[in-house]
Amino acid sequence: MSAWRIAAYRPIRPVLFRIDPERIHHASLAALRLSGGSSLGRSLCALASGVSSADAALAPLDLMGLRFRNRIGLGAGFDKDGVAIRGWAALGFGSIELGTVTPRPQAGNHRPRLFRLPRDEALINRMGFNNLGADALARRIEEARPSLPAGFVIGVNIGRNRDGDASDYPAAARMVADVADYLAINVSSPNTRGLRDLQDPGRLLDLLGAVRDEAPRPPILVKLAPDLDAGRLEDVIRALVASPAAGVILSNTTTNHNGLSMGSAAEPGGLSGRPLLTRTLDAIGRARFLARPPFAIIASGGIGSGTDAAAAMEAGANLVQLWTGLIYQGPGLIGDGMMAPS
Ligand SMILES: Cc1cc2nc3c(=O)[nH]c(=O)nc-3n(C[C@H](O)[C@H](O)[C@H](O)COP(=O)(O)O)c2cc1C
Known about the structure:
Blueprint: H1 3-9, H2 13-16, H3 21-36, H4 39-49, H5 53-56, E1 61-63, E2 66-68, E3 72-74, H6 85-90, E4 95-101, E5 114-117, E6 122-125, H7 134-144, E7 153-158, H8 168-176, E8 182-186, H9 201-214, E9 220-224, H10 230-241, E10 247-250, E11 270-273, H11 277-290, E12 296-300, H12 306-315, E13 319-322, H13 324-329, H14 332-338
Parallel strand pairs: 3-4, 3-13, 4-7, 7-8, 8-9, 9-10, 10-12, 12-13
Antiparallel strand pairs: 1-2, 5-6, 6-11
The protein binds flavin mononucleotide.
């Protein structure tokens, strides 16, 4: 059981929250990288998440022609450059989505660019695709691959440089196509001007065709924004069902900051965490109504417990991804999510 792990994390959280969010993020990634490199470290990871390597492979899933050892994944943007791949496997995840990477490295926006909203169990970020570039990520994945367990799926989320255009997607896809198990096309981050315009069904189909030409092998997912109204979302899903896409990720962060407690709520950027859950479940339900299996639906947005994970699967998701929930509930959330009935 993982409930005690989540309870044990609660008194640690205020200590971590005294440190600048981006600094503690990088420190945690460095610690996870170190842990993934030794058998003692990997055992500590399993202890922290409540998922042993045997447990992690108990409920495998076949989706998009891939075998996932379980339904709990890590969302994009947590480990953009793939620094701690072995550590994520040791924590028990069935999949991780690295990136967003762009064809050329870029620094992202000025700091501060990541803010906590503890009363809402939320974050606001305007990172702006800080990353070391798609080539560098491809090398990291290649290096890590031989030491990874079976059924541990690595997706790569691709995007556009700040000064680039839509041709950046096929360019990034070419760089990672041989090492990625799947590609996720990110047309939904709110922090790159004009990016979300690519959600227009016509432009999206052109984009998918261009990416497919450069990357014939891995399945392609499209990650959408939670800010599409119901009609727009349904139009996009109808277009995707008849496209080379294998599925969707619902959804990214939102620009709608209504109803938050004060504090950092006025910071511009994408909101993630608990306030997203209702919208996530609604979008999944609408998408699943239009897109029957084998079209894949991956839940992202506000998953903060095993109950939330179960609700997302009940609504029609095949897999769930964690991100902000890990910051507020700690690594025990991975084990808790795994308990969700499928
Ligand atoms: C700091 C931060 C950085 C993120 N970076 C990316 C990114 O590079 N690409 C992407 O597709 N999503 C990115 N996301 C969005 C997450 O992958 C996820 O879709 C979103 O946070 C909603 O899930 P959550 O409520 O579980 O956090 C980022 C989220 C956060 C909080």
